[in-house]
Amino acid sequence: MTTNEQSRLREATKHTAVIGTVVQMWEKLAWDIDVFEDIQRSYPNEKQPLAYAAINICIAAESLRDWVIEAIRSLAPAGSEPSKDNVRDQLALQIPQLNMCTAIANTAKHHNFKEGRWVGGRVELGWEEGDEDIPSGFALYHVDNDGQSMTLAFSSFRALKEAWWNALVAEGLAAGRMPTPEWMQNKLAGFSGQS
């Protein structure tokens, strides 16, 4: 890690306490996805927490995008930094859910609806009747292309986490297979220790 990177890590953690790298921001995204999944499983009758958690995932994905743009630009030789728009475009190709997350995050943050690059996209929250395998509860869907494609948010967000990891590896900002963050390891260890 260069002196400049170490300095940026220290500066970022002044406001985040634990997030100073793109991998740590990815771990935050993974946390938000885990919270959404827990709400979907544990509180199926609660629509607001489910929707709030989904918005948080999109804001985290948007934040990670900003961190990655800055990291990629800072790694380029001086004078040959790619434009922010070029990096955004490349990331959107690598992460199919990114335009959706950008539209949702910007609407939530700025109270200003703009489709942006998620043209015709929307979310739908509806009651799903259960059966002997799945309890009844609210389900959140991502609808693309003016209703042509409808995906359960639970699935979209799992794919988002994996796509982000693959993009970090492709950009040289991470290495190896998608890890299990320390907080998840601790959570799983706690569950396995219960009787």
Concise structural overview:
This protein is mainly alpha-helical. It has helices spanning 3-16, 22-42, 47-75, 84-94, 98-110, 153-170, 182-192, and strands spanning 122-128, 137-144, 149-152. It has a three-stranded antiparallel sheet with strand order 1-2-3.
Structure description:
This protein is mainly α and 195 residues long. Helices cover 60% and strands 10% of the residues. It has 7 helices and 3 strands; from the N terminus they run αααααβββαα. It has helices at residues 3-16, 22-42, 47-75, 84-94, 98-110, 153-170, 182-192; strands spanning 122-128, 137-144, 149-152. Strands 1-2-3 form a 3-stranded antiparallel beta sheet. Strand 2 (137-144) and strand 3 form a beta hairpin. Helix 2 (22-42) runs antiparallel to helix 3, helix 3 crosses helix 5 and helix 3 (47-75) packs parallel to helix 6 (153-170). The longest helix has 29 residues, at 47-75. The termini are far apart. The mean pLDDT is 87.
Key features of this structure:
195 residues, mainly alpha, three-stranded antiparallel beta sheet, 3 strands, globular
Instruction: Tally the beta strands.
Output: 3
Q: Based on helices, strands and strand pairing, what is the structural class?
A: mainly alpha
Low-confidence stretches: none
Per DSSP, what share of the residues sits in E-state strands of 2 or more residues? 5-15%
Placed side by side, the strands forming the largest sheet appear as 1-2-3
Mean pLDDT: 87
